Amino acid sequence: MMKRILSTTTFSILFLVSVRYLVADAAPDYSFHWVKRKKARSSSHLVERNKARSNYAAAKAVDRKLSTAWCEGKRGNGIGESLSIQFKPVVAEGIFILNGFAATRYHYYANNRIKDVEITLKYRNGRTKKLKRRLKDNLCFEVDERVCDDNNEAKMRACLKKQNRICHYEHGEGGGSDGASVVKLKAPVCLVGLKVKILSVYRGKKYRDTCIAEIRPARSTYLYMTSKEYKKKLDTVEANCK
User: Fold this and answer.
1) Are 106 and 232 in contact (CB under 8 A)?
2) For residue 18, is pLDDT > 70?
């Protein structure tokens, strides 16, 4: 059973005030990679009665399905819990995160979403780099009414009611980035792995599980807008990221 929020319980999150948090953009100018995964693991994952133990396992955050998610299994809000993925070398210009449990709008708002996150980039040369970012919230959109365009008003209302139960991450499963937080990198890098650590959360209305629907490296789709120096750097990284 999911960890319920008790109205009589107070919960405080402590973190270093000296750390500067930046806001990750919800930007339409990135697309994510379908990386070839080697391994996905987490410090914990949620296990519910009468469901498979792997139902919320780490692999669910890289399975290309918005209806599944990794959910941590620590008591409380999951502060300090982490998710790690390893993959074959890939060029990245950002990290694409579909934050929360996106199976339905109910699941999205019932459960926690990550607010502040620590991301560890794992480079092909063995080095690592840690970033701290703040992710945006309320990215589970309602459907555009044009999807249910019908001359019959009753049918249109029924369609909208059904569609608005769904958590619409626009283009999420097709590779686009609308509806997701893209943590932008200053320069292209060759990655072989990522680790995300929960620092704070947006509290869910009913449960205290913190979830991620999908995570993976991202590439800019507007290369023509970049400088010659950036393109040269990108060419060098791509040539050595095999």
Assistant:
1) no
2) no
CA distance 188 to 217: 11
Q: What is the pLDDT of residues 29-88, one digit of tens each?
A: 565 556 666 799 999 999 999 999 999 999 999 998 888 999 999 999 999 999 999 999
Rounded Cα–Cα distance for residues 64 and 79 (Å):
25
Single out the residue of 82, 79, 86, 52 nearest to residue 70, CA to CA: 82
Structural tokens at position 192:
């072989």
Joined together, the tokens standing for residue 108 give 């999205």
> What values do phi and psi take at 162, rounded to 5?
-70, -45
Closest to 59 in 3D by CA, of 90, 94, 86: 86
Percent of the chain clearing pLDDT 70 (strictly above): 71
- The beta-carbon contacts of 104-110 under 8 Å, at least 24 apart in sequence, are 104/165, 104/166, 104/167, 105/140, 105/142, 105/164, 105/165, 105/166, 105/167, 106/165, 107/167, 108/140, 108/167, 109/140, 109/204, 109/205, 110/204, 110/205, 110/206, 110/207
Per this entry, what is the length of the chain?
Answer: 242
Q: Where residue 225 falls among pLDDT bands split at 50, 70, 90?
A: low
Interstrand relation of 113-123 and 181-202 (parallel, antiparallel or unpaired)? antiparallel
Better-predicted residue by pLDDT, 15 or 179 = 179
Name the DSSP class of 4: B
